[in-house]
Amino acid sequence: MYILRELSWFFRKHWKRYTVGIAFLFAIDVLMLWPPRLIGETVDAIRNGSLTESGLTKTLFILLSLGVALYVMRFVWRYLLNGGALILERVLRERLFGHLTRMTPSFYQRRRSGDLMAIATNDIPAVERTASMGVLTLVDSLFMTLLTLGVMIVSIDWKLTLAALVPMPFLAWSTAYYGRLLHERFYLAQEAFGEMNDHVQQSVSGVRVMRAFVQEDQDVEAFRRVSEKTLERNVNVSRIDALFEPTIGIIIGFSFLIGLGYGTYLVFTSSISLGDLVAFNLYLGLLIWPMFAFGWLINVVQRGSASLKRLTEMLAEEPDVHETSHPVTEVGANHIEARHFTFTYPGTDKPVLHDITFSLGEGETLGIVGRTGSGKSTLCRTLLHQYRMEKDALFFGGVPIEQISFDSLRAKIGYVPQEHLLFSRTIAENVAFGKPEATEQEVMRALELAEMGRDLAQFGEGLETMVGEKGVTLSGGQKQRISIARALLMDADILILDDSLSAVDARTEERIVHHLRQERQGKTTIITAHRLSAVQHAQLILVLDEGRIVERGTHEELMKQGGWYAEQYRRQQMEQDVAAGQG
C-alpha cells in the first residue's frame, strides 16, 4: 500500500515498538482460537453425557485465565501501536513546521493559509490513524483470518469452510471499488476544508475592514457557499463510508447462512459432530471482526493516503533560494554594494529593479525614496536574500550575497518591514522576540529609543500588557514603534527600516531619527520613506522610479539638482508649515 510504503522510514526507526506490539497481536489471535474449541468439546461432552464437574471447572478456569491474559496483552499492544502513531504525528508536525519556516515568500504566495492549517489539523491526524489502527487492522485481520481458516479447515471440515467462503470474492471487489471512490472524494473534501479555513482566516483578520465597508452580510453569504461546498464533499465521502458496513454485513450474513445450513446437513449425515458445528459457528464469528476490519482498513488507508499525498506534495516543494555547498560564515565589514543589479520576481517576466548600482560604506546611512510602487521595498527584500537573484550583483563586505550563509547574513541584519507583525503576547515579549535573554532595562531602553516609552504609561500593566493578535489593541504608530524597538534591541550591524515611520507624526519621527543617529554611529542603516525628512541626514539617497535610479546624492546635492526629490521635499515642508500654523 502507498501509505505504508511512504511511512516505511518511520516503521524501520521504531521497529522494536512495532515488532513487540505486533507479536502481542499474534499471541492474542492464537489465544482467541482456544475458547471455541473448548466450548465445542464441552457441547459434545454434554451431548454424550461425559461432562464431569472437574472437567467443567477446568474449562471455566482456562476461559477465565484467557480473559485476563487477553486483557493485559490488549493493553500492551494498544499502548505500543497507538503510542507509536502519536510519535509519528509529532514528527510529521515538526517536519511540516520546520518546512514552513524554511520556505521563501514565493511559497506563501502560491499556498493559502487555510490550506496549510487544514494539512496540520486534518491531514496529519488522518495519517496518524493509518499508522495506528491501520497497521493494527492490516496485521490483525490478515493473520486472524488465515489462522482461523486454517483451524476451521484442519479441525472441523474443509468442505464446510470453503462453502462458507463463497461470498468472500464479493467482499474483495466491493471494498476495492469503494476504496477507490473514497480516496478521490476524501482528497476533494480536504481541499474544500482548506478553502473554508482560508476564508475564515481572512475574514477574522480583516474584520475591521469588513465592518467599515458594511460587508458582514455578504461575507456571511460567501462563507455559507464555501461551507456548503465543504459539506457537500464531506457528504459524498460519508455516502461511500456508509456503504462499507452494510455491504460487509450482507456478505457475512450469507457466510453464516451457508455455514449454518450446510453445517446442519453435515451433522445429520454424521460428517461432523454438534460440538464441531458450534465451534465452527464460533470460529465464523471470529471472522466477523477481520471482515469488518478489512473494510474499515480500506476506509482508513484511503483517507490516510489522500492526506499523506497532500502532505508529501507540500513537503516536496523546495525553497527558491538555496545555500551554496560551502557558504561564507564570517563577513567582516558592513559595506554594501550593488553592481548593475536587476531583479525579477519568481513567476513573472518583467523586471522590478533595473541596473541598480550603489556603494554604501560601513557606518553610513542609505535613504531610498520614490513614488509608490517604485521598487523601494523590493530592494530591501533582496538585501535579505529571500529570492533567487543573479550572481555577483549584490555584495556584503565584498562577498557576493549568494555565497553568504543564511544565518550569518540575517544575524547581521535587523529588519522592520512595512507589515508590522506583532504576536499575541506582552509588549516585553514582542520587543525581546529576537533577543529572549534581554533584561527589562534593555527592553525599556529600546522602547525609549523608539519613542514608545511615554506610551507605556497609558497601559495599566506596562511591559506586561497583552497586545492581542497582530497587535489589535494598539494604534498603527504604536505597532510601528514596537517593531522598531524589537529591531533596535538586537543592535544588528545593518538596520533596514522599510517605510517604518509612516504612521508616526513628524515630531516623533524626528526624535526617532535623532536616536538612530546617536545610537547607531559606526553601523549601517537603510531607510525607505515617503516623508523625505526621515532620510535627509543620509550620506547617500537614491530616488527610484519604476525600478530605476533616477537621482542620487546627498540631501544638499539633490536639492541643487531640482528634480523630483527637491520638488517633493519643498511640497512636504510647505504642508508641514501649514499644519503647524493651523495648530
UniProtKB/TrEMBL annotation:
Subcellular location: Cell membrane
Transmembrane intervals: 20-39, 59-77, 135-154, 160-178, 248-268, 280-301
Occurrences of domain ABC transporter (ranges): 336-571
Record's keyword annotation contains Chloroplast: no
Keyword Transmembrane found: yes
Membrane topology classification: Multi-pass membrane protein
GO terms for cellular component: plasma membrane
Annotated ABC transmembrane type-1 domain residues: 20-303
GO molecular function annotations of the record: ABC-type oligopeptide transporter activity; ATP binding; ATP hydrolysis activity
Main location: membrane
SUPFAM superfamilies named in the record: ABC transporter transmembrane region, P-loop containing nucleoside triphosphate hydrolases
Signal peptide start and end residues: none
Protein name as it appears in the record: Multidrug ABC transporter ATP-binding protein
